[in-house]
Structure formats: structure tokens, C-alpha cells
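Q: Could you fold this chain for me?
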Amino acid sequence: MKKIVSTLLTLFGGTLAGLAQQSLTLEQCRQMALQSSENVKIADKQFGQATAERQAAFAAYLPKISATGSLTYVFRDIEMSTYLPTFVPDIATAQLKPNLMPHPITPTTPVIGPDGNPVFNMYAYLPMEVSIRGAYMAGIVVEQPIFAGGKIIAGNKMAKLGVEMADQNRAMQRANVMVETDRAYWIYVAVGEKVKILEKYSRLLDFLDSVTATGYSIEMASKNDLLKVQARRGAVSYDLQRARNGLELARMSLCRIVGLGYDEQILPADSPTQITPPPLPEADSSVTVTARPEYRILQKQVEMKSLNTKMVRADFLPVVGIGAGYSYLSGAKISGQEMSLKLPYAMLSVNIPLFHFGEGLRKIKSARLQQEASRLELEKNAKLLELELRQISRDMQDAYTLVSTAERALEQASEALRVSSDSYEVGMETLVNLLDAQAQWQQAHSNLIEARTNFKIKETEWLKATGKF
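A: Sure. Below is the predicted structure, expressed as C-alpha cells.
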């Protein structure tokens, strides 16, 4: 019986490092997660929105062309009158000649004309009737700003910053997805490996329980040995069930991140045995948080507040613009005669703010205070990001050390298991000690899996903290 147990323990120790069935690699999971992430999609939409806003801001440099039109219907005619000259100068003879008007002129008191003869008054009363029934006017206007207090320039710079901030936000969201994917993937790998260890350990205890029960029935094993095996078997069954539940949760979490249904069975292609941590680089003081998207967004927010101050100041500076247009009026009648007008024109407009009871000064002061608050916010968050970088660097160094420690512990546990197994085979070791040695080996192997996968997670977090994603 002891020979059989020793053989099974040796086989168990040699097969625990088997690779999981391949299905999805880490890189494949990353790409799937990036394609399915709602946050990444939202960031892409925001980038497109910022690009459109920048194009719209540039249009402020260009002239604006607009068409106008109106149709008027007045139910009653408008009665009005005017005085028109009855005589007008004749350029050829330098004499007054009658003003030939198509309208009847009501004469007034006669006077003596230039030749000594009586004539009518130089001016006559002319009644008119204006009809605006169906009059319409149409035209086209071209306007070009010349100076707007710097608002157009500042607006375009702000729109450009908006595009850059949206691009940095896309990079930040992609990095967040990569970290989340790596963490979920390696947790799933680690729990899966632990389940495999416990399953093999459980099968071994099942066989050992059967062998010990047979030995007890023929008085070759004690009752105490049988109870010890059964107690260990129950404990491992409990741990195995918990590990399986954890594996199912880890699988569903990874499915959610990569955009698969919760019923999909993901089999990771990577294994902890393939993880060999590279030598850690020496501490480099040049590695800072300035390459992180979060830091660059904060920097651009400070620039944005500075431009916003210029925008506020521009509201209280002169505005100069030029324009040109052409209008056509038709449909109106004066004393039964239809009137139409063609009116080409050009214009220069100047708007100079004079007095606003201190409104401009207060708004500019408020904008400057917002700019200063944004700068202080950058300094505060830069310190927090620097602290996070140092903490993650320390965590990665600790994770690297834990891998080496776990590897040595596994070597020692493997040697202890070999010695205990050999001693048990020749009757110099108790079954309880053999079970303890095997449990220590199983725990050491589980610790190594956890240390290696944790190192990969910390490595990903370090890449994100340094802006290398």
C-alpha cells in the first residue's frame, strides 16, 4: 500500500504543472475588450464631437452669407401726402420749367414767375395712397468679422485643446480597459490552476481513503489513520468547492469585459508556468507621471482656463466687422403705381462697450480665479499621481520578490515531500506527517501561481502608471 501511495504522490507532483487548454490569449482578450468597452466607445464619440467643434470654431474666421426674405400684407391702404415742386430748373436755359408729374397737382396761391408772369406756387400739395398688399423683399447679406476682441482666436485655440483632451481621454480609457482585462485574465488563470491542483489532490485523497479503509479492514492500518485521511479529504472538498465557485465568478467577469455571453466557456491559453519575471530595471528618476493621459488632461485644463479668461475679456472689447448686401423690394403701390427698388449696399459696424457698472472687471477676475484654481488642482493631482507611481513601483518590486520567494518555498516543499514519501515507504514516517508534507507542497505551489499572476497584474499597472500603455 505504501508503494502505491508513494507512486501516486510522485505522479501528482509531476503533473500539477500541466498547461490549460488553449482558447484565448491575453492579447486576444485585450483586443476584444477594447472593441466591446462602452467607455472606449464613449471616448471615441467625444473625440469625434471635439473634432466637429474645432471645425465649427474655424468657420468663425470665414465670412457668413445669409439670405433674407419677407412678405407683407397690410389690410388697409396708407393715406399720406407730400409737397412736390411745380417748377424745376431747366439746365439748358437756366429757366424754370413746369414739373411734368403723372399725378394731379392741386395748385395753390399764384405768384409771379421769373419772367414777370403769374405762375402757381413753386410747391404743390400731392396726396398719395400707399398700398402694401403682398409686398415682398428679398436679399442676400455677406458679413465678415475684422476684430472681435480676440474671441475668435481664443475660441479656436480652445477647440484645438478640446480635441487634444478628447484624444488623451481615449488613451486613458484604453489603458483602463487594458488593466481591467489583464487583472481579470490573470485572476481567472490563477484560480483555474488552483482548482486543478485541488482536483488532483482530492482524487489522491479519494484513493488514499479507499486504500486506508481496506488496510483498516484487514488490520494493516489504524482507525486514527483512516480518520485523519477522511478529515483531510473533507477539508479539501470544501476548499475545492469554494475554488470552483470563485472560478465561475472569474470566468463571468472576464466574459463581461471581453464582450462575450456569460455562458461562454473561456479557456486561457497562458499558464503561470510560462511566466518568468524579467530582471527589474534599476530605479530611474526620469520616469515620471508627465506621460500619463490623466496628467496631460489636467495640463490642458489649465490652458483651457487661461483661454477662457481671454474669452471673457473679449466680451468687453470693441467689435469691428464689415458687410455687403443686395435687397430687392417689389409689390408695393403708390397712388396705383407699382414700385420696385434694387438696393445694393455696404456697411461697416463698430460696437464699443462703454460702461457696464464693473461687470467686465468682475467677470475677468472670476475667470482668473478659476484659472488659478485649475493650476492648483494640477499641482495637487500631480502629487497624487506621483505617489501612485511610487506605490505601484514598490508593489511591482514586492511582487517580483514574492515570485523568487515562492519558487524557493516550492523547491523546499518538494524536497520535504520527497523525503517524507521515501520515509513513509520504509515505515519511518507516519501517514499524518506525509499528508502534512503533501499539503505544504500543495500550498507552496498555489502560492507560486498567485505570486506569478500577481506580478503580471502589477506589471500592467506599472505600465499604466508610467504612461507606457
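A (continued): The helical segments are 2-15, 26-36, 38-58, 151-217, 223-258, 293-314, 359-425, 431-465.
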